[in-house]
Amino acid sequence: MPSSSEFHPPLTDARAAKLTNIEKRADLFVRDSSLKGFGLRISPKDVKSFFIEATVQGRFTRRVLGRFPLLSVEEARKRALEALRALKYGEGLSRRPETKINRSKRTH
Fold first, then answer.
1. 97 preceded by a cis bond (ω within 30 of 0)
2. How far apart are CA 13 and CA 94, in angstroms?
3. Is a pLDDT exceeding 70 seen at residue 60?
4. CB atoms near residue 93 (< 10 Å)
5. Is 67 exposed, middle or buried (0-12, 13-18, 19+ CB in 10 A)?
6. Distance (Å, rounded) from C-alpha 90 to C-alpha 30?
7. Which of 28, 54, 70, 87 has the fewest CB atoms within 10 Å, measured from its CB?
8. CA–CA–CA angle 52, 55, 61 (5° rounding)
């Protein structure tokens, strides 16, 4: 039986550059075959963003890592691995840690 990588090749810069959202109605999610939980989201306007996704404590979560081509696939994959490890080992991911700090310093 063929491996899943034959059906879904790993993300590369060349592949990411060629991908487009032909439906134009909803986001297209292209998942990487070499790192579970990592992929590329393509908006209806063809804006490409890397993401991670995982289930943590029974809740599904998805986080954006950055945009392609400002971030290469290899750099995004490294960031994804670090972020997924943080989720798995309980460090979690805050959407905007600086906002939490600023709120605690705010005076009324």
1. no
2. 28
3. yes
4. 14
5. middle
6. 26
7. 70
8. 50
Residue 13, helix vs strand vs coil: helix
pLDDT band at 57 (very low <50, low <70, confident <90, very high): confident
Placement of tokens 């972020």 in the chain: 83
User: Helix, strand or coil for residue 89?
Assistant: coil
* Domains of the chain by residue range: 4-105
Q: Cα(80)–Cα(85) distance, rounded to whole angstroms?
A: 8
Question: What's the average model confidence in pLDDT over 93-102?
Answer: 45
Length of the chain in terms of residues written: 108
Token pair for residue 62?
């998805």
User: Which residue's entry shows tokens 């034959």?
Assistant: 6
